[in-house]
Amino acid sequence: MVDVLVAETSVMESRVAAMSFRAIVAGWLVATGIAVLLYVGGMAMGFSAFNAWNAHASAKGIGIGTAIWMVLTWIVSLWLGGMFASWYAAHDDRTIGSLHGATVWGLSVSVAFLWLALGLGAMHREAAPMHAGMGPPPADAGMPAGPAPGALAAGGDGSLAVLQADVQARLTTHDRPTADQIVAALLAGNDNMAANLFAAVNRTSAADGAGIVAAIAADTQAAQLDAKRRADQLAHNAATVLWIGFASLLLGLLAAALGGWVGAHHIGRIYHLRRFENSAARPLRR
Fold first, then answer.
1. Which of 7, 88, 124, 239 is the most exposed place for a label (fewest CB within 10 A)?
2. 156 has pLDDT over 50
């Protein structure tokens, strides 16, 4: 007589949770509301801490505090938004909860960049007609014209403005567009072009134009150094802003995903008196 052993197998089946777009939108709205609340609170604290008698130190402290506050606001708002999205989905699947949080982050980033692009586009459209309708004011025939608006915008009231005023003073016509071209040539190191422009406008020889360029060589060198310092500072500030933005986005993604995970993990505490979808596995006998 032969004993036959029959193996019994069981298959674990679990209900797969689905992504809920309504939960994602709800989490995004919560994250946006909390971000606005924290931003307004940060602005209120910044204006309260500003000291007009020590404006430089106050501005520096407010700038650093603003960067830190923006990162913290982004993290906290997305954490709570991802957690609320998991609660709204009412499912204890932690993986789906993390996906809800990450999707809330993606929606927040997309809307923020869309809003920023629309705002910059509106500012550009408003500024274009204004610049088109504002021409340089006519210069008095007996007095040298002042520095050109473009030069003042680029160099402020420093060495670049001094060079612009010096160039205009040495032009017989005090032509601002020509002065801008000469200044650009001098800053680029193209002294021959600047000398030829001086000679053409003043109707003198090329040697006289070269003499004018040599006479203002000190102002040219100072303006070149100032322009390089400004460019270096601008690049440093841009890099700082970009790194802060990168850190905010990365930490926001991690916070949103972790918030969604925590929300799904503690879903039983939110719905302890109500029913919610349970992903616990149950065996099927075969």
1. 7
2. no
Q: What is the rounded radius of gyration, in angstroms, for the C-alpha atoms of the chain?
A: 33
Q: Which residues contact 251 (CB under 8 A, 6 or more apart)?
A: 71, 74, 75
Model confidence at 254: pLDDT above 90 = yes
Please calculate the CA angle 189-196-219 and round it to the nearest 5 degrees.
45
Under the phi-then-psi rule, with left for phi > 0, alpha for psi from -120 to 50, and beta for the rest, what region is 203? Answer: left
Task: Give the pTM.
Answer: 0.65
Angle at 79 between CA 74 and CA 84, to 5 degrees: 130
Q: Report which of residues 138 and 193 the model is more confident about.
A: 193
Report the DSSP beta bridge partners of residue 283: 12
DSSP 8-state symbol, 23:
H
Distance in angstroms (rounded) separating the CA atoms of residues 151 and 160: 7
Does residue 144 have a pLDDT over 80?
no
Q: Which residues lie below 8 Å from residue 270, measured CB to CB, with a gap of 6+?
A: 87
Q: Report the greatest alpha carbon distance in the chain.
A: 129
> What is the rounded CA–CA span in Å between residue 24 and residue 30?
10
Spatial CA neighbour of 256 closest among 131, 82, 35? 82
Q: Counting every residue, how long is the chain?
A: 286
pLDDT value at residue 226: 87
List all residues 6 or more positions away from 255 whose beta carbon is below 8 Å from its beta carbon: 74, 75, 76, 78, 79, 82
